[in-house]
Each structure stands twice: as C-alpha cells, then as structure tokens.
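Aim 2 progress update. The chain analyzed this quarter is reproduced below.
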Amino acid sequence: MDPRRKIKRLAVLAAIVRRAKARGQTVVLTNGCFDLLHAGHVSLLRRASRLGDLLVVALNGDRSVRGLKGRGRPLVPAPQRAQVLAALESVDYVTIFSGRTPRRVVERLRPNVLVKGADWTADRIIGREVVERAGGRVVRVPVVKGVSTTGLLERIRRSGPGGRGRRQ
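Predicted structure tokens:
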C-alpha cells in the first residue's frame, strides 16, 4: 500500500477511529514534531503500536513546529515528515495538526491509549485528562538515551561547513 494513503485529514480519521472502536479495537495516539526521524522516534512508535490495534500519529504542522522549536525549524516540511512516518510499519495513520498543541486531535479522536516519551511528565501531557475521563490511559515510554533531533542538529553544526565531522 502507498504510505500516502495512511495520511488523513482529522475529520476522515475520526470516522476511521470511530469504526475501529466500534469493532472493539484499541486505538493508540501519539504526537510530536518528528523532524529528522531518528532511532528514538522509531523506538517510541514501535512501543506505542504494541499497546493497541491501531496507531495514529498526530504530527505538528510547520507553523506549530516553528512556534515550539524556533526559527529554522522544521528542517523537513510537514508533508514529507508525514510521508516518512506513514512508511513505517508500526504506524497505521498520520494526521497533521496546525495548532500549537494536539488537544483538538485528542478531543476529536478520544484514543484508548495516549503515548508520550518518559521525558514528558504526566502533568505536561496534553489531552491526558480527556483520555482518562473517557476511561483511557496514558502511557509514558522510555526514551532512547543520547538520541534527539536537537542533539543531532548540534552535532551537524559542530561538524562545520565542510561536514568533516570535526568535534569540539
């Protein structure tokens, strides 16, 4: 299947999720910027997919990433980030949201399980109360130590304009 078929507008995805839940399937939702996909992201997505039958990734749109990460981000435009995520076997659907937070996505989809990395404290997880009020649960999965987009960008910047891998 063409991975682009996994990328859905929120309204379409809401109907898919409703049907899945009606069939008794467990819907898992995670969200993030996923700019420069790395091993930490892949680990989080694999773990999240094991928690249910259907994994949905809510992807921050470009304006949202810029607001969170600053000028010069994202490095990869949202449609391309969505396509890379959709190509992963562990991901069933991807939706791009434009707000600063995924609250609207969480409220609309009401997943059975909401997943974030353990670097997020429970009180900072957007939509936690929505999921828990609906009888769902929030799961914080371990992060891969030493792997982050910010860290990768720092290493690239330190390597200098020639990209010779020079370290400071």
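The chain has a mean pLDDT of 92. The beta strands are 27-32, 54-60, 93-97, 113-117, 137-141. These observations will guide the mutagenesis experiments scheduled for the next reporting period.
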